Amino acid sequence: MPNSIGQTKTQFYHFNNQEYPFELKSGAKLTNFTLAYEIYGKLSENKDNAILLFHALSASQHAAGINDSVEGLSVDWDKECQTGWWEGFIGSGKALDTDKYCVICVNYLGGCYGSTGPYSKNPETGKPYGSDFPRVSIKDIVNSQMELINHLGIKELHATVGSSLGGLMAISLAAQYPNKVRNIVALASGIKTSVLQRIHNLEQITAIESDKNFSNGDYYENDHPKEGLSLARMIGHKVFISLGTLEKRASKEIKKEEDSSWYQIQSSIESYMLHQGQKFVKRFDANTYLRILDAWQSFDILDECGFNDYKEMFSRCSHQKYLIFTINSDVCFYPHQQEELTTALSKGGINPIHITVHSEKGHDSFLLEPELFAPHINYALNN
Predict the structure, then answer these.
(1) Do 245 and 186 belong together in one domain?
(2) What is the Cα–Cα distance from 164 to 240, expressed in whole angstroms?
(3) Engineering a disulfide at 59: which of 55, 211, 213, 269 sits with its beta carbon 3.0 to 4.6 angstroms away?
(4) Where residue 243 falls among pLDDT bands split at 50, 70, 90?
(5) Which residues of 339-363 are buried (b: 16+ CB within 10 A; e: fewer)?
(6) Taking a C-beta distance cutoff of 8 angstroms, is the pair 53, 104 a contact?
(7) Is the domain of 225 the same as that of 320?
(8) 274 within a domain of the structure (yes/no)
């Protein structure tokens, strides 16, 4: 790909503080944890050019370039993982221009791509945490990454950028740390979890927990809940892309499944959806999927930041600049959710730039069509 940053390597930040452990929203405490992250571009001498990029639900710290392997994973780091998920946005002359900015992307606390999560070894037992890994909130994910930012000596971020679930984190960071970031870019996101999203997420949670191999999350020494995770992914995938795009992607050839099910696959779309679920289970962990869905389920920016109204909270952020993207065909984060976000910001005296992208590709347009977003991002970050 033109202007690709080439080969990259995951780095690891290790938090270790016995005296002042990292406290989660639930009250649980971690005396140590690891975050996997990648950096693109160089920090300026004053360390004032950093952009913290939050990934979406099932992505990783590997946002750009090629990374052939990551050490210590329990899941496959396949070809899809090896190519940066935002390759079209990061690099020389791109939206996140690495000639100007230092872009940092981190795998979530609770993740399965190198950060401490349910598969990680519990120091108290010497075995994987499994069900003992604590609940993680959006606030916790943001706060853990700010530990890394502080470790790197960055006093103020030039920007934070996030798409989908990552957009919730970008908004959360801006509201929690109003003096730590100047520019906020949120793509296809919102300000709180909608009723429809909670129902949709619950369907996925139930699919995983209903798998006979789930064992309340303590499955690492036995068969994993592959059927449940596969079904959860199918439930989720249908809102990530438009139905038109789904139909185009589906192969015309129907693949016969080797099972004893009464129902037989009859269309290429059904075959395509089954394939999406089956390939996903090889590269992702069911416990991590549950932790992230759980964090999403309870998200409300006011509750996250301890405020009662948007005016009080966002008035602290009136010096910040916001760029909000709506995708007109999005059925994961519907357009009205970005309207709610811009209205909330305006109550605090913020006048965000709100761009509606017209696309036939649905929610995943922010992954597939950089040309629709890049000019606006470039303008927002440089003005």
Answers:
(1) no
(2) 10
(3) 55
(4) confident
(5) ebbbebbeebebebeebebebebbb
(6) yes
(7) no
(8) yes
Indicate the residue type of 215. S
Of residues 126, 141, 123, the one with CA closest to residue 288? 141
Residues 39 and 110 in one domain: yes
The pTM assigned to this predicted structure is 0.96
Distance CA 19, CA 172 (A): 27
- Domain boundary residue among 271, 293, 315? 293
The two tokens of residue 179 are 């003096």
Among 4, 115, 163, 164, the one annotated catalytic: 164
The per-residue pLDDT of the chain, averaged, comes to 95
* Pick from 282, 265, 287: nearest CA to 274: 265
Categorize the per-residue pLDDT at 378 as very low, low, confident or very high, splitting at 50, 70 and 90. very high
Q: Which residue, 228, 260, 293, sits at the end of a domain?
A: 293
Distance between CA atoms of residues 274 and 144, nearest Å: 35
Exactly one of 137, 330, 359, 365 is catalytic; which is it? 330
Question: pLDDT tens, 11-35?
Answer: 999 999 999 999 999 999 999 999 9
| Catalytic (active site) residue 260 | no
- Asked whether residue 366 is assigned to any structural domain, the reply reads yes
- Does one domain contain both 20 and 163? yes
Q: Which of 114, 54, 51 is nearest to 81 (CA)?
A: 114
Give tens-digit pLDDT for 244-254: 888 888 876 66
Of the candidates 55, 200, 224, 363, the residue annotated as catalytic is 363
E strand or H helix at 39, and its extent? strand 32-40
Domain with 96, as residue range(s), is: 11-194+300-382
C-alpha span between 229 and 57 (Å, rounded) = 14
pLDDT band at 313 (very low <50, low <70, confident <90, very high): very high
pLDDT score for 244: 84
The number of folded domains in the chain is 2
Distance CA 52, CA 45 (A): 17
CA distances from 17 to 207, 227, 299 (A): 37, 39, 28
Give the tens place of pLDDT for each residue, 210-223. 999 999 999 999 99
Q: Does any domain span residue 125? A: yes
Catalytic (active site) residue 330: yes
Q: Compare 279 and 249 and report the one with higher pLDDT.
A: 279
Res. 311: pLDDT tops 80: yes
Question: What does the chain come to in residues?
Answer: 383
